[in-house]
Amino acid sequence: MIGLVLSLLVIFIIPIIVVITLNRKKKVRLRNFIVGIFAFLISQTFTRLPILNLLQTKTTIFRTGLFSNLMPYIIFLSFTAGIFEETARFIAYKTILKKEKNIYSPISFGLGHGGIEAVIYTLLPILSYRYNLLFLDNLQVYLGILERVSAIIFHISATILVFYGIRKNKKVWWLISIIIHGMYNFIFTYLANVLNRIVLSEIVALILAIILLIFARYLLRKLEREESYEKYES
To answer: Residue 112: enclosing H or E segment and its boundaries?
Structure first.
């Protein structure tokens, strides 16, 4: 029961509170959060995962070659996730959110993107055990929550990188975000699935996510200073 309450708090309630606070105090429009949700759903649930399933079941070369070897498989999954998700962010800020100037908007977007992922992969599975909560493995639940916290932090940071690149008109930041995303996924998956160091993988993922957040915050502050200077000059 404690795991369920903690999951609801961390995965659902706190992100919603942050989004509402950003809307009221920083004037960040709620559509950033909503677009973030759809960016994940479109790039992963409705695009990447069906393609992977098709390749795995219908394509012989993938079924007997790439998908039969663990390391190439992990690398493939890690970097395709980066390609699809970071491209979704890039397209969103180039189309629907192309007029978005609020430097806090990537935070709301990232909360939507990472939040819906957390709901799908952590909260819903926990809720599916609502009649058997006493039989849940508490450690597994807590590790799942920690994983989602790390992922949400990562998605916020990655969105900031893409946003920064678009504002500075430098597509290289989109490519950088893809590479970082792929490496992040690979390190986590390698530790968890190859070395079978589950707890270590969660700790490392959190540390890497926090490091990226610190760097992303630096970019946001840098962007804010530069734009303030440009306004002053004009």
So the answer is: helix 105-118
